Amino acid sequence: MKVAILTMFNGLDSSYSLVNVVAEQVRMLLDANIETRILVSDICPLNKLYGIFLDKRIKWVKVCNRLNGNQMHWKNYTQPEGEVHETFFEEVDAIAEDLLIKLKDIDLCFMHDIHYQGWHLHHNIAIRKVQDRLPNLKFLAFTHSAPATQPSNPKWPFSARYTPMPNTLYIYPTQSGIPALAKQYNVPEDRCKVVSNSLDLLSFASDEVRLLAKHIDLLTPDILVVYPGRLTGSKKFDKVAALCGAIKKNHDKDIKVVFCDAFPNLDVTPETYKNFVRSTGMSFGLRNDDLLFTSDIKESLQGFPRKGVLELFSLSNLFICPSYSESFGLTVLEAASKGNFLVLNEQVPALKELGSNLNAYFMKWDAKNFGFNTRETYLPSEEAYLTDHAKNIVKLMDSNQILHAKKMAKKRYSPQWIWKNQLEPIMRTLTD
Question: What is the reported pLDDT for 266?
């Protein structure tokens, strides 16, 4: 499949929200290995591309914006009748002839506000001429503002803003706008579909976090746990894995665990301990691919940067610290500041003190206190203990409005979710 995105952008300033919408759609298409062409005005500068726009797979196509060597000046024709400027229809024909060449091998064309905006009226008319000559070309017409109320008797060419085009589905970012959108174009509501704007948090992430995202899903899990620390048995990585396994086994939750493990101590052989942590997690309910040590990534062998850990905390929603000993626990503060549910070892005085101030959830693990050590015995078993607490933790997290909003913003409105559940099925509907 070949897809063209007709934007007629004069520039790619990221402060223009539609530029960001198009950028995320481009990322979705490229991730799906779909040949993608972006059509912009011939005055759009392409010497300062950034982000996904730098991808070499994109084909940039400039569309005619001149008549007889003179730049066209768009006018905002929002009225239902009146007069267009003298060269309007000559401009329409020039644009149509150019678009015909540049869309002749395209299967599906996305149009962004081309039918909606008054200053795109001659592009609106031009694309209709193109479709008359390319009857197999399909269109998705995206509207990004509140639908316009259809006038009682609009006159051509102004009526094009309210007239449907064959082989076209009309798209709006929310379900609540579908009835109004259908009325604007006088089409049945089943010709109008929802494609929400997406939030691509990884586009703002550092190179280290984007690299990590290639190895483990950071956006769509119900629960993401990030636990940074020196790779030593006293940090109790295995207890984190065990609790996460209990959550997954007993609740319908997709859970991922990222261990940002720094340099190992001499008390443990790194691979031996990591294998023990993995096997512990799997024995309690995790899959092997639910868990990742950053040191397993070749490019992160020298330690994952602290800035990257803070970024990960902004994506995670559960922080578990069963550490055997802490003098303060700065990572607890870091996780709390980024909106994580805190589960701390009640037996460690510093964690108890800090967690009480932060309204943390407490569990009991082995700990080193001032002058003595504790050794926990769980009755009837550690599995039963973890199962009970997993139930409480999930219940508290599910009922927390802030955590719910954070999860939904990251998961339900991620580019991956929008692509899989909205955009790709709509594209198949038109092209199958």
Answer: 63
